[in-house]
Amino acid sequence: MAGLRETADHAEVLVNATPGNVSVDLLRSIGAPTLASRFVIDVGVGLTDDYTELSHPNSSLAEQIQAAFPTTPVVKTLCTMDSTAMIDPGGLAGPSTVFLSGDDAEAKQAAGRLLTDLGWPPSAQLDIGGIISARGQEHFALLFMGIANGLGSHTFNINVVPRAAA
Fold first, then answer.
1. Distance between CA atoms of residues 106 and 92, nearest Å
2. Engineering a disulfide at 73: which of 25, 28, 60, 107 sits with its beta carbon 3.0 to 4.6 angstroms away?
């Protein structure tokens, strides 16, 4: 069975879907040289063990990964929904929005193509800016849990609805 580094050596893109409070250390175990030749899609969110607070409230996991691996483009996406919605946006009752944050335009375009392959049409993809904007995506986790409690389900997403044209 291949380890993380051996598996990463054969990947074009890596997806970080690990608990946010261990992600950077786990990626360090793969090694900066391996990470430098690909980009990372980060879907993780760092929460405290009791899931009541963010483990990095003044930053984002994506920013921490980007700082730890400055030659590896990081794209934050898919962290505002559960895994069911991630891979089956058509299973939701209506249209919804998936966000992209990152400093590397080429990596965001590649991530967008992968999102399209998962069923997220370009019209549902919203680039919200550089890696610092990942904070908003990750901080949504606290509201996500409240909405899930209110709905009685974790499978939902949000839709950004712009103002109607005048």
1. 29
2. 107
Q: How many residues make up the chain in this entry?
A: 166
With contact defined as beta carbons under 8 Å apart, do 78 and 43 qualify?
A: yes
Token couple for 97: 């929005």
pTM, rounded to two decimals: 0.94
Cα-Cα end-to-end distance for the chain: 60
The SS3 assignment for 23 reads helix
pLDDT in tens, 3-29: 888 888 888 899 999 988 899 999 999
User: How far are the Cα atoms of 81, 87, 96, 156, 157 from residue 91, in angstroms, in the given order?
Assistant: 13, 9, 11, 9, 11
The closest alpha carbon to 69, from 108, 105, 35, belongs to: 35
For residues 59 and 138, the answer to whether their CB atoms sit within 8 Å is no
Rounded Cα–Cα distance for residues 9 and 33 (Å)? 10
Provide the 8-state DSSP code for 39: E
Which among 34, 38, 41 is positioned nearest to 12, based on CA atoms? 38
Whether the CB-CB separation of 45 and 83 falls below 8 Å is answered with: no
Q: CA–CA separation, 88 vs 98, rounded Å?
A: 12
